[in-house]
Design brief:
The complex is a heterodimer of chains A (about 170) and B (about 450).
Chain A lengths: L2 H12 L3 E7 L2 E6 L4 H10 L7 E9 L8 E9 L4 E9 L5 E3 L8 H12 L2 E3 L45
Parallel strand pairs in A: 2-5, 6-7
Antiparallel strand pairs in A: 1-2, 3-4, 4-5
Chain B lengths: L1 H42 L19 E6 L11 E7 L2 E8 L7 H5 L4 H9 L6 H16 L5 H29 L4 H21 L19 H25 L3 H7 L7 H6 L4 H6 L6 H4 L20 H24 L18 H6 L1 H12 L7 E8 L4 E8 L7 E5 L1 H5 L3 H5 L4 H10 L4 H5 L1
Antiparallel strand pairs in B: 1-2, 2-3, 4-5, 5-6
Helix pairs in contact in B: 3-4, 4-5, 5-6, 5-12, 5-17, 6-7
Classes of the chains: A alpha/beta (about 170), B mainly alpha (about 450).
């Protein structure tokens, strides 16, 4: 099962929803629209040809400089029968960081979505129990967002320039 | 003899006298009980695992809420489960996790790649070398470097030793939770030998920080060879001795069979991996499915269970230990000649004596320590078969010195969420067994 076939099969059914695609180290990465992400994942699980029956990983990424695409939710699916991995990316804006929960499709997504909410504040609509999971309940910020510096911001010996990039703060 | 008979008959009399009263109490509480039950079934999600007992049945007509953990000796780590029990039967449970959350994913965003290895140690600390190697391989995949065959075989030896140590701890702890302490002490002598082997390679025992990006810090020492040969000679006998204590032990079998089962469909839906999934009957193993570090060169089998219960999980791990030993023997016998590290001067620290005498080594040393190494931008997912499942690293690099985002796929964080479903309808003692047989490691769970 090669990546071109997987992509063409998805495009056949959801042509308008596939925004872009690339192959990273053998894994096909597809960016899909937030509005149809649930339907696409459900179809991928039930489709007999692609058969992505296993959810490997679900998580978030924060790109604070990307206007209206600040948060990415990344799904790693795995088809065991056909032996390929698939990475789906959904970008959502910071004003309304919400996306439909896929707990109904894969029960394993439950805690991974809670963790993503806990870290990034991404709301998963329809999640049965969207509470913080690793941090304490009364925490009032989302720590994995890039605006929260790991180090004390007043320190000068650990400048972002030393980490090969210009400052996060801009 | 006579006295005993008298005592027995009087006890019977007492029982007979109290029976009507007892019945009355039962009838009275029956209504309250039914109300409670209907409340419970309204609010609870249905039990979807058909293998669990019927939860409608009641024992003493009252529900109690108890805390199982966070610091209970039977939880082997800091897990809290709030159980709603009827007598000793679990009606529902709620988990709390995160007690030792250390924000590894955030920490990793401000650390150079070589400093992330010690973080991975502290995920599944029962088999840290696998975590370390998985991380090295992820970075090597990103920078696109060819790793010498010898290094790959050396890694396989260390990783399989770690798997043996991991499974030994888990299975001996199942013994403890069934009340057999002897079977806990026997394998610890063997685990000690494995830790001595780690010590020979990297100097550390538990949080190993073993190997480097590109290879090992040093070649296997003569002492290592000697100790490994000794281990390969003595371990099978010691292991079978341990195995003989539990595998066909009637008490152990009665306790573990049927405790905390999960069906293959449910396990898949909950994204189970590792021995827990294989015990349910699905033969998924990253080592076979997507071989890394030359696993395709070795001949071994993937054991699977049938019922997905505690006994099957135990048996799958026992067989995996034997298979791991087989892999180590093959890898050690065919250990290729060559260098113990890849030719990767931008990432692999030069030997200290060279730093003082060789200009090039000095430059690379400076660049690595000061973090001025160029790292390509890219996105990579790499996974290895950890001690308890598929351990994955999802790394996004923007070309900086540290990852832009690093997410760990922590197998037990994902499969531990099925725990309430697995113990509903079981007794508390079965819940203890299920927890230990699932091999949930607090460090990995909370990251």
């Amino acid at each position: 099962m090669n990546n071109e076939f997987i992509l063409s099969r998805i495009q056949e059914h959801f042509g308008a929803e596939v925004i872009s695609s690339e192959v990273n180290f053998g894994i096909l990465t597809i960016e899909i629209t937030a509005s149809k992400s649930y339907e696409i994942i459900e179809w991928l699980k039930n489709d007999t040809v692609l058969d992505c029956s296993f959810l490997t990983l679900l998580g978030g990424v924060h790109y604070p400089d990307d206007k209206n695409r600040e948060f990415a939710v990344v799904y790693h699916l795995h088809s065991w029968r056909k032996d390929f991995r698939l990475r789906l990316k959904v970008f959502i804006p910071a004003e309304n960081p919400s996306i439909r929960s896929i707990v109904n499709i894969y029960n394993g997504a439950n805690w991974m979505e809670r963790e993503t909410y806990d870290f990034f504040g991404i709301i998963f609509e329809g999640h049965p129990n969207l509470r913080r999971i690793l941090n304490m309940d009364d925490m009032d910020y989302f720590p994995m967002r890039k605006e929260y510096e790991l180090e004390d911001a007043t320190r000068e010996d650990k400048d972002d320039r030393f980490f090969g990039r210009s400052s996060n703060q801009n | 003899m006579k006295e005993e008979n008298i005592a027995l008959s009087s006890a019977e009399n007492n029982a007979a006298e109290s029976t009507p009263q007892f019945k009355e109490i039962q009838a009275e509480s029956r209504e309250a009980l039914e109300k409670l039950l209907s409340d419970a079934t309204d609010s609870n999600t249905e039990v979807s695992n058909s293998k669990n007992n019927d939860t409608e049945e009641t024992i003493d007509g009252k529900y109690a809420t108890i805390n199982f953990g966070p610091t209970h000796p039977a939880t082997h780590g800091i897990f809290q489960n709030i159980l709603k029990v009827d007598g000793e039967k679990i009606i529902s449970s709620e988990q709390t996790v995160g007690y030792i959350h250390r924000a590894f994913e955030k920490l990793a965003e401000r650390r150079p790649y070589n400093q992330i290895t010690p973080i991975t140690d502290r995920l599944n600390y029962c088999s840290s070398p696998i975590n370390n190697m998985g991380w090295h391989m992820t970075v090597e995949k990103l920078i696109g470097v060819e790793i010498p065959k010898r290094v790959q075989y050396m890694r396989v030896i260390i990783m399989e030793l770690a798997r043996i140590a991991d499974h030994l701890i888990c299975n001996s702890v199942i013994g403890v939770d069934t009340g057999a302490l002897t079977s806990f002490f026997y394998p610890f002598a063997e685990r000690e030998k494995i830790y001595e082997l780690y010590e020979e390679v990297c100097g550390a025992r538990l949080t190993t920080n073993i190997g480097r990006i590109g290879g090992f810090e040093r070649d296997f020492t003569p002492t290592f060879h000697e100790k490994l040969k000794n281990f390969l000679r003595t371990f099978p006998k010691a292991f079978e001795e341990f195995n003989g204590m539990l595998e066909r032990n009637r008490i152990f079998m009665d306790r573990t069979k049927g405790a905390g089962p999960i069906s293959a469909e449910r396990a898949l839906n909950y994204s189970f991996t590792g021995p827990n999934l294989r015990a349910a009957g699905v033969d998924y193993d990253v080592r076979v499915m997507q071989p890394y570090s030359s696993y395709e060169d070795f001949d071994f089998i993937i054991p699977v269970g049938v019922n997905g219960d505690t006994y099957d999980r135990f048996m799958v791990r026992q067989e995996e230990v034997r298979q791991s030993l087989k892999i180590i023997e093959q890898a050690y016998k065919n250990l290729p000649e060559g260098d113990y590290k890849a030719d990767l001067p931008e990432f692999y620290l030069p030997p200290k004596q060279e730093v003082y005498n060789n200009m090039e080594a000095l430059i690379y040393h400076f660049k690595i320590v000061m973090g001025e190494t160029e790292i390509p931008a890219g996105e990579v997912y790499h996974s290895v078969e950890g001690g308890n499942g598929e351990l994955g690293y999802y790394l996004i690099s923007d070309g900086g010195r540290s990852p832009y985002r690093l997410q760990f796929r922590r197998p037990c964080f994902i499969y531990y969420q099925a725990y309430p479903e697995m113990i509903t309808g079981m007794t508390i003692s079965d819940a203890v067994l299920t927890l230990s047989s699932m091999n949930v490691i607090a460090g990995e769970l909370d990251a």
